[in-house]
Design goal:
The chain is an alpha+beta fold and 402 residues long. It is built from eleven helices and 19 strands. β2 and β3 form a beta hairpin.
Length: 402
């Protein structure tokens, strides 16, 4: 289960909420284990004796039945989409049965309004008097749900809950940590395969082809939090463009920096790690600067312990980079939380936050210099009782390939 149910229930109780309603794709996925098609809603009641619920489009039966089934049974469908099914279930697989049953359920009344289905379900569960946290991130002010609550559930007080979902998601479940570790391994395999393909004159696009093919072969998806741009690789002076993810026809030359920043996606969870290599030879400046940023990043990793203050980590990382070779180094943060949507709180910056067990963070100390290049080493770390647990593989030397 992706949902940190114990934490969700504790925070619901602290905020005197009867239930939470998820509306954004990420929060619905997180709450249900199901990555839905179209606008969907999910209800997570405070009391475990009250069944959770998902409302989703009848066009989206396949994710529910086959690709990412929710951890509870009550799924209700709205909209219009036609699926033909035989009159009996004989000979159907469990997945086929689930789609046929969804079709039959929807055919009974062909509901069009997800808000009505949600209100009906709240009333069935007796959630009609008190505070209900509603994730407002996918429910604009004119959304009909707000008016329907006021009309049909006059004793319910809707409380904005987008921030509460973010707070819940800060602490990862074992399933989330497993997926993040897996996507880091897939990303590392793509990096290794791409480096193995290196030869003089290879273009960024050709390197990126190996990267993407490996990710798919290893069970990942070649998309990322970077949006429309992919994959996040660059050579030479182009590495100075931070977050560049638009491979070009530039051809690799001796002495060039090779780097990536980001990674694959696996079962809904993206990767954010970074590595650097040099082609054939590493210049003195690259060696010196890589040592400085790597040592600073490793200092941050080593300090990632329960109860540690993120401002102390930030200051220690920046000071280490300066002391080890980049005296003019500047940075606004040296890490951030990581999860289902990419960036999560906390940010490892000047404002201090205490680290908690099972937070997952990405630590980084990038350096970008236009006309020279950009370097960074970024690791993914889980905060555990015994200290930091690396979810990415350690790398202690600057790679020189070719």
């Amino acid at each position: 289960m992706l949902l940190n149910r114990d934490r969700a229930e504790r925070l619901m109780a602290e905020n005197e909420l009867l239930a939470l309603v998820a509306s954004s794709p990420a929060n619905v996925f997180y709450s249900t284990d199901c990555s839905p098609y179209g606008d969907s809603l999910a209800v997570i009641p405070l009391e475990r004796g009250t069944e959770p619920l998902m409302v989703t489009s009848i066009a989206g039966t396949t994710p529910v039945a086959l690709m990412s089934p929710p951890w509870f049974r009550d799924v209700r469908y709205y909209g219009e989409f036609y699926i033909e099914a035989p009159p009996t279930m004989d000979g159907l697989t469990p997945e086929e049965r689930a789609v046929a049953e969804a079709k039959r359920q929807w055919e009974q009344s062909k509901p069009r309004d997800p808000s009505k289905l949600l209100i009906d379900a709240l009333m069935e569960r007796g959630l009609t008097e008190g505070r209900i946290g509603i994730d407002e991130s996918n429910l604009r002010g004119s959304h009909p749900l707000w008016g329907m609550i006021k009309k049909r559930l006059p004793h319910v007080v809707p409380v904005p809950a987008q921030a509460l979902f973010t707070e819940i998601r800060m602490i990862k479940t074992s399933e989330e940590i497993s997926r993040i570790k897996t996507v880091a391994r897939i990303t590392e395999k793509a990096w290794e395969a791409s480096l193995d393909s290196i030869h003089r004159g290879i273009t960024e696009r050709e390197f990126a082809d190996v990267w993407q093919t490996t990710i798919i072969h290893e069970g990942g998806q070649s998309n990322s939090y970077l949006g429309a741009f992919w994959p996040p690789v660059a050579f030479g002076r182009r590495t100075a463009f931070s977050d560049i993810a638009q491979p070009s026809k530039y051809r690799l030359q001796p002495g060039d920096i090779i780097r990536f920043d980001g990674g694959a996606t696996y079962m809904g969870y993206p990767c954010d790690m970074a590595r650097v290599a040099a082609y054939m030879e590493a210049g003195d400046k690259l060696k010196k600067y890589w040592h400085a940023i790597h040592t600073g990043e490793q200092k941050a990793v080593q300090m990632a312990k329960r109860g540690e203050d993120t401002a102390r980590i930030f200051n220690a990382a920046v000071e280490t980079v300066r002391r080890e070779g980049i005296a003019h180094y500047r940075r606004h943060h040296t890490g951030h939380g990581w999860g289902i949507e990419g960036y999560d709180p906390p940010t490892v910056g000047p404002r201090g936050v205490k680290l908690m067990e099972d937070m997952v963070l990405c630590f980084e100390t990038p350096y970008y210099e236009v006309g020279w290049g950009g370097i960074l080493h970024e690791d993914v770390v889980a905060v555990k009782p015994g200290g930091p647990q690396l979810l990415s593989s350690p790398e202690d030397t600057l790679r020189v390939v070719g």
